[in-house]
Amino acid sequence: MTAVRAGPTLPFAEFVALMAAMMALIALAIDAILPALGEIGTDLRVASANDTQLLISLIFIGMALGQLIYGPLSDSVGRKPAVLIGMGIFVLGCLLSALATDFETMLLGRLLQGIGVGAPRTISIALVRDLYQGAAMARVVSFTMTVFIMVPMIAPALGQGILWVADWRAIFMVILALGVMLLLWFMLRQPETLPPERRLPFSLRQVGLGMAEIFSNRIALGYTLASGIVFGAFLAYLSTVQQVFQQQYALGDGFALVFAGLSLAIGAASYVNARLVMRLGMQRMSRQALLLICGSSIAFFVLAHGADGHPPLWWLLSYYSLVLFCTGILFGNMNALAMEPLGHIAGIGAAVVGSLSTLISAPLGIGIARAYAGGVEPLVLGYAGCGVVALLVMGWAEGKREK
Q1: 272 within a domain of the structure (yes/no)
Q2: Residue 201 resides in a domain
Q3: What burial class does residue 102 get, using C-beta atoms within 10 Å of its C-beta: 0-12 exposed, 13-18 middle, 19+ buried?
Q4: Residues 187-207: pLDDT tens digits?
Q5: Radius of gyration of the chain (CA)
């Protein structure tokens, strides 16, 4: 079922591509700098290699804070002005990171980038919810994720290519330029999807009411929590992937190729989900994905522990391919399931769902990643634990629907 608002709309393919590009800006800001983490740490005199993980996790914290503002702001002034404000903050953050001469300034720049991309992260979901609902919404989100996943596949290679001809500062300038191009595309092509008669006055009270409604809705809250828990394990993977493959397994420049191959697993999952979700349903696909994550992680932890935290490379690649495929299944479905009861407060709903899930995932991801000490056992155990808890939370949420 679709719910298309009267008025001008983009062609479906361009709408999906634009929404994917808005969300992909987040992946670009994260993944393009992965090959440069070592050089950034050296140039900015970082004390511990694990401290550079903050360059990945801090952008998520900023995004969580930003989403609480952009959701109600977009419900008040419209979707487009809110995106323009966020993109301006993102550009400022990229500029600050490019010019940083100490690690604290770099962290501030990454925080501002996160606050900035909170706008496209939140509002892209609200835009989809303005036009679609139910399984059709999940289908659009899945197609969006399929296009979006191309960026993680090529971003580290882009960053590595830039490092061959320039230093790490040029990576941030390239991200800045692409962000400006996306801003212009959105500004010139995307119609406003929230008519004036549906807008709400901006107030913190509205945010509080939105939070109260989500916390009182077992399905919305349950899937928000489950999404944040699963994403915590994924954030730990992102934060440590450069250390694991470039340092522990000494792949060097081959890291970009390995990362692209692993990202392909998420892209394939998003495509498969888009093809099957209308027939099998979001709940069934999410449950099966979580069961696979739990079972494979427990089994691989035993193997990794037996190999003293350094299993053969092909073992690790096979394991990560499977759990990332399952993670790709969960991304679109859990967001759509959390948003399904919130169509009447799509902007605030998207903000609170995105912010709460990120605020859950960030400390989880940081904690799991900082336990890394040259062996992969903490990362695998983190995925197993997060999968089990998410499965329990999903069962709790679906218990209400069944009753």
Answers
A1: yes
A2: no
A3: exposed
A4: 888 888 888 888 877 777 777
A5: 20
Looking at residue 6, its pLDDT comes to 45
Question: Contact at 8 Å (CB) between 20 and 128?
Answer: no
Alpha-carbon gap, residue 144 to 127, rounded angstroms: 12
Q: Spell 163-177 as b/e; 16+ CB within 10 A means b.
A: beeeebeebbbbbbe
CA distance 91 to 95: 6
> What pTM value is reported for the model?
0.81
Q: d(Cα 259, Cα 152) in Å, to the nearest integer?
A: 8
Is residue 195 one of the residues assigned to a domain? no
Q: What confidence score (pLDDT) does residue 386 get? A: 94
Gap between the Cα atoms of 370 and 34, Å rounded:
17
Mean pLDDT of 250-274: 85
Q: Give the whole-angstrom CA distance, residue 268 versus residue 273.
A: 8
**Residues 78, 248: Cα–Cα separation, whole Å:** 48
Within a domain: 2: no
Task: Report which of residues 182 and 345 the model is more confident about.
Answer: 182
Report whether 143 contacts 137 (CB < 8 A).
no
Whichever domain contains 155, its CATH number is 1.20.1250.20
Contact between 175 and 158 (Cβ < 8 Å): no
Q: How far apart are the first and last CA of the chain?
A: 24
List of residues 6+ apart from 47 with CB closer than 8 A: none
For the chain, the domain total comes to: 1
What's the domain range around 333? 12-190+206-402
Residue 133 has pLDDT above 60, yes or no: yes
Residue type, 174: V
- The whole-angstrom separation of Cα 318 and Cα 322 is 6
pLDDT per position as a tens digit, 306-317: 999 999 999 999
β-bridge partners, 132: 2
DSSP 201: -
Identify which of 224, 211, 234, 240 has the alpha carbon closest to the alpha carbon of residue 364: 234
- What are the phi and psi torsion angles at 25 (to 5°)? -60, -35
